[in-house]
Design a protein that fits this description.
The structure holds two protein chains of two kinds.
Chain A lengths: L1 E6 L5 H11 L5 E8 L8 E6 L1 H18 L2 E9 L1 E3 L4 E9 L2 H18 L2 E7 L2 E4 L4 H12 L1
Helix pairs in contact in A: 2-3, 3-4
Chain B lengths: L1 E4 L1 H7 L3 E3 L9 H9 L3 H6 L7 E4 L2 E3 L10 E5 L6
Parallel strand pairs in B: 1-5
Antiparallel strand pairs in B: 1-2, 3-4, 3-5
Classes of the chains: A alpha+beta, B alpha+beta.
């Protein structure tokens, strides 16, 4: 019931929710998170690279761990790589469960783990100059709260 | 063993992959980093400070004290920034 895709091109959020819903007919709730490229401080584009063999493995493990914590019926994770500009969707996490609490929490959990464990790296472009994005301590702190619970 | 590099680690070293026979005296990832730091060029710069470096062996996150085998795929990269 799980879908994991790493892709260059855009995705259709509505179509992905409909596809997850069609596969999880008993679900009473689907919670989704979509991340978009922000135009912060004059950012003109983002380029993402990843470690292909490891990415799917990590995400599969994250979904398996989420499934041990909450009664999930299915999940879809789509992460884009390559070049994208402000306003474009970069990541989608959709989680189906019987009730909203499990769906919301698992969605939050999966995003925190994607941010801190999945092997993706962002490069930002501003005024023609590119630089690698530094990891944020706040993302580590957010992921850490799932460990102490 | 296969060494893989990503993001600025790849750029500073100037390649994404290299094949190496486990050098004599190298037991852990930390030993390997010390060995690579002595290789000069981009390797020396990248492996001089391991605080900004992360490592995975055979596609699993691990720490620098993990013991290596010659058939391992060892990846060095900065802290991840996806999502």
């Amino acid at each position: 019931m799980n879908t994991i895709r790493i892709q260059q091109g855009p995705f259709d959020i509505g179509a992905e929710i409909a596809a997850l819903s069609a596969k999880t007919k008993d679900a009473g709730a689907i919670a989704t998170f979509t991340g978009f490229v922000r135009p912060d401080d004059g950012l003109t584009s983002l380029t993402l690279e990843h470690y292909p063999q490891m990415t799917e493995r990590e995400i599969t493990q994250h979904i398996a761990e989420a499934s041990t914590r909450w009664p999930l019926l299915g999940a879809t994770i789509i992460h884009r790589i390559g070049h994208m500009v402000p306003g474009e969707a970069i990541v989608l996490v959709a989680v189906a469960a019987s009730h909203r609490s499990a769906a919301f929490q698992a969605c939050d959990f999966l995003m925190d783990y994607l941010k801190t464990r999945a092997p993706f790296w962002k490069q930002e472009e501003r005024d023609g100059a590119v630089q690698w994005v530094e990891a944020k301590a706040s993302d580590d702190t957010a992921a850490q709260r799932w460990r102490s619970e | 063993m296969t060494l893989l590099y990503f993001a600025w680690v790849r750029q500073k070293i100037g390649r994404s992959e290299e094949i190496l026979t486990l050098p004599a005296g190298v037991r852990t990832v930390s030993d390997l980093a010390t060995f690579l730091q002595k290789c000069g060029g981009g390797h020396s710069e990248v492996f001089a400070d391991l605080r900004r470096m992360r490592v995975a062996i055979n596609q699993e996150h691990c720490d620098f004290e993990t013991v290596l085998r010659d058939e391992d795929e060892v990846a060095f990269f900065p802290p991840v920034t996806g999502g």
